[in-house]
Amino acid sequence: MSRVAVLKGGWSVEREVSLVSGRECANALRALGHEVIEIDVTRDLAALAAALEPRPDAVFNALHGKGGEDGTVQGVLEFLRIPYTHSGVAASAIAMHKPTAKAVFAAAGLPLAESRVVARAELARGDALPRPFVVKPIDEGSSVGVRIVRAGDNGWAEEARHWQYGEAALVETYIPGREITVAVMGERALGALEIRPNAEMYDYEAKYAPGGSDHLMPAPIHPAAYQSALTIGLTAHRALNCRGVSRSDLRYDDTAGEPGRMVLLEINTQPGMTPTSLVPDIARHAGIDFNTLVGWMVEHASCDS
User: Least buried of 75, 152, 242, 248, by fewest C-beta within 10 Å?
Assistant: First the structure.
């Protein structure tokens, strides 16, 4: 048995999701026989350091979004020399900043959508790319703030004038087709899952509301496309020097028939661990139940980037 601190909550817009991830992972660790301390993280660094005394053997980082997923808390834990789950400081920071991650992926030869970083002041002046295109915050997760702008969409100009997710946005060419996600565990791509949202897009509601989407595992796509998805997910994981578990999100353009083309959208170094989350579904199909998955992540915790 070991003493494990589970970090959850935080102050990002993904706080509620993190609380659920933290609860589920804490329950799994207790079922495995670990002593578990649950810590609701705030901006009070002194309070966090105090809550981590006496020092746990490991930290399970169940935080999502800014502060918990972008290298911030990872740096604190490395300073304290406490092993923690998921990726290190550099991989976490790069993955969270979408334009920087895309530059790394491009250097690795991965297939990407055409994109531009557009200043907030420029957003309302006109379309940065031909429609349809996708507008995303540069450094948010869980599809927060993501907007598809299509031909005839007359509401976007007004929304663009009130962009609230920082001083710039990432604008990408819209890739038609299907939503695919790949889970990587260590050096192994566990599988590719197709997401069929019960709405126009796989947004925050579709991700976390019960019945918001259907998960098809394994993804019912052409075998060559399936293998391509696994290769892209593992290559992205390695390109950023991720560790532990990651999840890569892709679009599969099969509109001209199969096998179509796979396009990498982004990588998530702190995948959700809620009852509706994707990585547990993929792991389960690979023969790894939730408790085993969480236990493996703690066993592979590290305090070195």
Answer: 152
Q: What is the mean pLDDT of the chain?
A: 93
Note the pLDDT tens digit of each residue in 220-245.
999 999 999 999 999 999 999 999 99
pLDDT, residue 200, reads 66
Active site residue 12: no
* pTM of structure: 0.91
Say whether 268 is catalytic.
yes
CATH code (residue 266) = 3.30.470.20
Of these residues, 21, 143, 248, 268, which one is catalytic? 268
Please pick, among 9, 10, 12, 14, the residue that the annotation labels catalytic. 14
Residue with token string 């890739």: 175
Whether 208 is catalytic is yes
Q: Catalytic residue at 194? A: no
pLDDT tens, residue by residue, 160-207: 888 888 889 999 999 999 999 999 999 999 999 999 988 665 445 545
- Same domain for 185 and 280, yes or no, is yes
Annotated catalytic residue 114: no
Instruction: For strands 178-185 and 168-173, give the pairing.
Output: unpaired
Task: Please say if 142 is a catalytic residue.
Answer: yes
Tokens of 230: 């696994």
Of the pLDDT bands very low, low, confident and very high (cuts 50, 70, 90), residue 267 is very high
Beta bridge partners, 24, equal: none
Q: Where are the beta strands (DSSP E) in the chain?
A: 3-9, 35-41, 58-61, 115-119, 133-137, 147-149, 168-173, 178-185, 188-197, 213-216, 245-253, 261-268
Q: Is 249 a catalytic residue?
A: yes
